[in-house]
Amino acid sequence: MEHDTTRPVTGTYPDEPRLAVLTAAEAHETIELLQLLEQLDPAGSGPAAGQLAADLARHLPAP
Prior knowledge:
- The chain contains two helices and no strands.
- With 63 residues, it is mostly helical.
- The chain has a domain at 24-58.
- Helix 1 (24-40) runs antiparallel to helix 2 (46-58).
């Protein structure tokens, strides 16, 4: 199935509050694991994992 990437995606979203995908504790643990991956794989996926960890950390309150 091919998708038309030239047109914007449109849709409707419910008004009800959405549940978090991760709890705060799970998110903090995920950040720690991503940072570990960054250290273990500096030439492969490490830098991307570190960037993802930093992006996620910016959206969370301090532990």
